[in-house]
Write a structure and sequence with these properties.
Two copies of one chain form a homodimer. By secondary structure, chain A is of the alpha/beta class. The first copy, chain A, has three domains: 62 residues, Up-down Bundle (Single alpha-helices involved in coiled-coils or other helix-helix interfaces), CATH 1.20.5; 213 residues, P-loop containing nucleotide triphosphate hydrolases (Rossmann fold, 3-Layer(aba) Sandwich); 46 residues, no CATH class. Chain A has 15 helices and seven strands. In chain A, strands 3-2-4-1-5-6-7 form a seven-stranded parallel beta sheet, with helices on both faces. The radius of gyration of chain A is 26 Å and the shape is flat. The N terminus of chain A is likely disordered.
């Protein structure tokens, strides 16, 4: 290389600098920069694999960044972490506000670390930008777990679009798994679309409920019960114990009315007191039973593979739709066609065909 | 016009025919043909509006045709029937094979015609091409209803793609309504995707069940129970009466566990013997109650408007996806990317982004 540089200096100009030298200097600088970035990325990945929490947090920040350069680095890091990920069990936790999700996650997380597990807690909450606060934002609600060196709590990724938040959460799971976490708990509120997204990225889906009088399932979005692998009746302490036991019976009956799941897992109902720390062993044992059953019958692996396929297709479909429906011409015409349908001037299919021909 | 033709004849060639004369003759012929088609179409529409069954059948055949010319005529007919449609109540009927759908529809249909209603029976069964027979194909199973002059039975539209079958069924509903039918019964098998499609084109969705021992809801696809506005326990005759009453209790309990529907309608359970013709009045009364409630609270109209919007968007989305995923380049690359994901070489999101850039 040195020899080549010397020969090139024959082209030196009056000002003492050759064109190729400038180019060389620039590309050397670029190369150096690239090398530096790569070294930084390599070092970060190495630290993540060693379980360094600071490195993990930095990588997640890159994943969550909207800066194009950061996103490119993030993609490289996630890609290189992939072969080291995929080993944890991913548990989704949902329930309406007030059901005690944070307290449950804190005591359940502590229970798991006491068993020697490394636990990461994430959240999917696309509405956080509206409610001016993410569901895990108030870390003081989990003050014991926060101090636990085997636990890692990451407040929810911000973002308006659920697709974007889900994307970031999926990549964060990969990073946490590469960092050696055994259990990933993903919290979501039981309203809106987020629990469907979370259901599509976890192995086990857990619905928290309170024991109360009357219609136990009121207030939950339709379809969530069918998604649940377990219903946990929380706050089963003091005067609530009897009510919780009754609710357990009712839910069990309801769950048995459903057709068997593809996993061949019969969803279960458990009661739990997060405050009195009761029922935690049962819940973890149940999840282990689920893992054992579904790994033996092949569902666990198949399900993860289906989830990957789902996210590929889902991401593409969302992009195709967004490209189409955000075209100004289409936006205006769609509104008009819907009015024409309402006035019985056209059918849904004629309108669709007309709109498709606009682009 | 005649004058113009005469002046043009000055350009007459040696052979005695001018170029413009040929053109004129051709366009006159075209015009005549167009006029003839329009007359035929107008006559057909007039006959449909008069309730002529032969004309209705001919129009439905045009809707179901794959011939481009027929489809164009069909579109015109459906469009001109639209202002006269939209007046019937549309009832979806589903249940696993063996539950007695055909017998139920026959006696329920006869019950409705005895009340002075005109009843059309359609079917959505996209799998008919596979099972070598459509669910309503065997008209002998409804031999009484077939002979009833106030009933019209149309076997399922054939077709491999559910989207296409649904499209044809929706347009057939319009034609039947324009022909003055008051009740449209749409039968579908309770497996696969067809009941979701039917649910999206009816006002009231009815699930037929048998009373049996054990888990009553086994064998039905997940989600169907949540769709149902009523569960009818069929074959409640002889020794089955007691079992049916027990099943009614169980289902009622299960239905009450669900959150309230947007329609504010509390789904109901009814028992029925199609053979002994018992319970039919209750079922029709229930549907009338539903119609009254939802027309009063505005849900009925809103729901139909939402269904129209759903079909516009659904048709567009299906076309966008089909255009994208049927590109040979994408097909090959998708397969490869899914393999790369399985080998932990790429993420779902990186794969999606790569595939989107292919087109």
């Amino acid at each position: 290389m040195a020899k080549k540089d010397t020969s090139k200096s024959a082209l030196r100009t009056q000002k003492g600098v050759s064109v190729s030298e400038i180019t060389n200097n620039a590309s050397i600088k670029q190369l150096k920069q690239k090398r530096k970035t790569q070294l930084k990325t390599d070092a970060l990945i190495q630290q993540i694999l060693e379980g360094n929490i600071t490195a993990l947090s930095r990588a997640i920040t890159l994943v969550e960044s909207t800066n194009v350069k950061h996103l490119k680095d993030a993609q490289t890091i996630v890609k290189l972490c992939l072969p080291h990920a995929n080993k944890a069990i991913r548990i989704g936790i949902t329930g309406v506000p007030g059901v005690g999700k944070s307290t449950f996650i804190e005591v359940f997380g502590k229970h798991l670390t006491s068993l020697g597990k490394k636990v990461a807690v994430l959240a999917v909450d696309p509405s956080s930008s509206l409610t001016k606060g993410s569901i895990l934002g108030d870390k003081t609600r989990m003050e014991d777990l926060v101090k636990d060196k085997n636990a890692y709590i990451r407040p929810s990724a911000s973002g308006e679009a659920l697709g974007g938040v889900a994307h970031k959460t999926r990549e964060t799971i990969t990073l946490c798994e590469a960092a050696g976490f055994d259990v990933i708990l993903i919290e979501t509120v039981g309203v809106g679309q987020s629990e469907t997204a979370v259901h599509s990225m976890v192995d086990f889906f857990l619905l928290l409920k309170l024991a109360g009088a009357g219609d136990e399932l009121q207030g939950i979005k339709r379809g969530i019960i069918e998604m649940a692998d377990a219903i946990i009746i929380n706050k089963a302490d003091g005067d609530n114990v009897k009510k919780a036991k009754l609710a357990k019976l009712e839910f069990n009956r309801a769950l048995h009315m459903y057709p068997l799941k593809d996993s061949l897992w019969q969803p279960k109902v458990s009661i739990c007191s997060a405050i009195e720390q009761k029922g935690l062993t049962d819940i973890w044992d149940m999840i282990c039973d689920f893992e054992k059953l579904t790994k033996a019958n092949g569902y666990f692996q198949q399900h993860r593979s289906n989830q990957n396929k789902f996210w590929v297709l889902q991401t593409i479909e969302n992009q195709l739709k967004s490209d189409f429906f955000n075209t100004p011409k289409v936006k205006i015409a769609l509104k008009k066609e819907l009015e024409r349908i309402a006035n019985h001037e056209t059918t849904a299919f004629a309108a669709a065909s007309y709109l498709l021909n606009l682009k």
